[in-house]
Amino acid sequence: MPVDRYDGRVTSDSAPNDIVERIGREWAQAYPDLDTTPVEVLGRINRIASALTHSLDRDLEAHSIGRSEFDVLGALARATRPLRASEVVSTTMLSGASITKLTERLSDIGLVRRRKSDRDGRVVLLELTEAGRELVDTQFPRRLARDTKILESLSPEERTTLITLLRKVSRALPE
């Protein structure tokens, strides 16, 4: 692939400029003494995440729930048993206070069942209702199909490389 000398980034002759490339060029022109490649890497990650998030929001809107609520439903769908709120917190990266609020709402609309633990009455256990399971069973495959379509331009080897590289970047994030 040719290297664009405006800042040393690799470019493709056949691919049209995208908005992130244009922004990267503008930053490189405004600050020629700085390496602006993080703008192109992280800008693309943000753009992809934003587009996928917007699409998921549209799909979930029809069910009167948002992404955070779907994250809770997903955590419960993946579990092999009812979960404590603290377990949902650890798998969704949402706060304990928000989990309480979200599960109360999900319970009110019939997607989650909240019940006291038989062993400790202070502990609330969370599980999907049949309606909650149906929603996840419908929406998750839809989401996965959309994500798969987006990644179709990558070979299996490229996907593996991308996973490895993104894992490295993710691990470099501060806690």
UniProtKB/TrEMBL annotation:
GO molecular function annotation: DNA binding; DNA-binding transcription factor activity
InterPro entries: HTH_MarR-typ, MarR/SlyA-like, WH-like_DNA-bd_sf, WH_DNA-bd_sf
GO BP, sorted A to Z: response to stress
Residue ranges of domain HTH marR-type in the record: 38-171
Keywords recorded for this protein, A-Z: DNA-binding
Keyword field contains Membrane: no
Protein name (Swiss-Prot/TrEMBL): DNA-binding MarR family transcriptional regulator
Lineage: Bacteria, Bacillati, Actinomycetota, Actinomycetes, Mycobacteriales
